[in-house]
Design a protein that fits this description.
Layout: H1 2-16, H2 30-40, H3 43-50, H4 58-79
Helix pairs in contact: 2-4, 3-4
């Protein structure tokens, strides 16, 4: 019975750790780490964090925060003339 209850909770644990914008690959260089810090503190990200409230919009707002943070990171890299990773622009899931 106990194992059945734990098995039922497994999908919930998987959903809690899901992040569509999670990074994978090599660790950041010091310059990239500095740009990630700048991105976390950007005005757009800060404004979106203020809109998070307890309720149904948490996931939607978190996706918007992830997109804004990634855009701020890319902008920082361009401003510092650092190479960015390749790929396409992240878009929110619908």
């Amino acid at each position: 019975m106990r194992s059945l209850a734990l098995l039922a909770l497994l999908p919930l644990a998987a959903c809690a750790t899901y992040n569509p914008f999670a990074r994978s690959g090599p660790a950041d260089t010091p310059e990239q780490a500095a740009c990630r810090s700048v991105a976390r503190d950007s005005d757009a990200v800060r404004d979106l964090r203020r809109t998070v409230s307890i309720g149904d919009n948490d996931r939607i707002v978190q996706e918007q925060i992830d997109v804004a943070q990634e855009r701020a990171f890319r902008t920082c890299l361009r401003e510092r003339r650092l190479p960015g990773g390749g790929g396409v622009e992240l878009t929110p899931r619908r």
